[in-house]
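Journal club prep — side note

Before the paper discussion, L.F. wants everyone to see what a predicted structure for a comparable chain looks like in token form. Sequence:
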Amino acid sequence: MFLGSGKMGIKLVVIGAAGRMGKRILSLAAESGQFDIVAAVERPGHPDIGRNLAVTTDSGPVDVLLTDTCRAVAADVAIDFSLPQALDRTVDFCLENGISLVCGTTGLSDQQRDTLKTASAKIPVVYATNMSVGMNALFSLVGKAAAMLGPDYDIEIVEQHHRFKKDAPSGSALTLAENICRATGRDFPESLVHGRSGKDALRQEGSIGMHALRAGDITGVHSVIFGTLGETITLNHTANSRDTFVRGALRAARWLVGKKPALYSMADVLGISIE
């Protein structure tokens, strides 16, 4: 039997609950006192299915039984930081139960993004490639900077993540590039150049360089370099802990409760504009 927190807060389902992000969502949601964890879900066959995750908080332990079944449940919102192949199952679960969805899963295909858009006609959905508040501020800034600086400034994007990250470039790096393209009239993703090699790799006018580094346990570093003859400007965001993404996701979950069905972004959650 599932044992929730027993608090009268926002009823929360955590999908991908045994992963690195999922565990931190459970912990910080319980610690906040604003959420009642009503379900913790993982993929079928996960070795921890049936185990009590026993989240520790300042006010004492919270028993959370891990299940592989997205069963009928009364909940306000689900947070999903699992894998792309689990998206359809997550969306079906939320639609069947009338549950709002915060999706932070990266590496989604265009078809999967369309799935979220279709679902948002019936339930409110927040989708973001990065839930960090600071990173979303950077999303807003890069397009404005590129438009102000103009075409004389070359643009390079460098992203760094831990050795276990599967998708490259990161979803956040692609969002940075997409916002720059939108603000400057470039075509996306045609303007992107992914790395360079060879004896004839001269930079092409109007291109945006994209470089993905994978090493150790780097949580996440994104740098946007604007360079021209005589000066270089770098806008940088460094995530020192996964907790920054978790806090953003929980903020989105609180904001989403009571919203009308639509596809929202973290820019909507934070009330900032993306140009």
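L.F.'s comment for the group: Residues 163 and 215 are 5 Å apart (CA to CA). Keep this in mind when we get to the figures.
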